[in-house]
């Protein structure tokens, strides 16, 4: 059974990882044979990694990083905190894939549309923030939450059976609002 076909993103990692391995071989004055002896990874596999022919599997990334005494993310960006798994944003990946197939004038239309959508979204977020800020400045008017004339407070009692205090009533208004009103 063969290996799964690499995604374009995984393909783009091969030369990056190859460069990183070669950098640390140079930095630590080591040869690929030293890396093979220290990790147990086959010499041909190490050659494939350093030439960018093969993507390093996660287990071997760990072995290589341990050999050099560095972080896995120093070898392979997939282990970095900044790395975003391509499956986390499938719509973006599909959009990019489709855009790559478009001719440049059509790519520009997609870019212009996305830019205008982003601008519109920012405006909407600004409105929401300003409305919330205004409400916080004014405070909450409990009359907006519940109409006291529609609540029979005599039916409501505290856990010990005593009538509710005004403070408790205010807290209930804030928490329950219109749900307090008798139907």
From TrEMBL:
SMART domains: HTH_XRE. Residues 21-75 form the HTH cro/C1-type domain. PROSITE patterns: HTH_CROC1. GO terms for molecular function: DNA binding. It comes from the Bacteria. This is XRE family transcriptional regulator. It comes from Lactococcus lactis subsp. lactis (Streptococcus lactis).
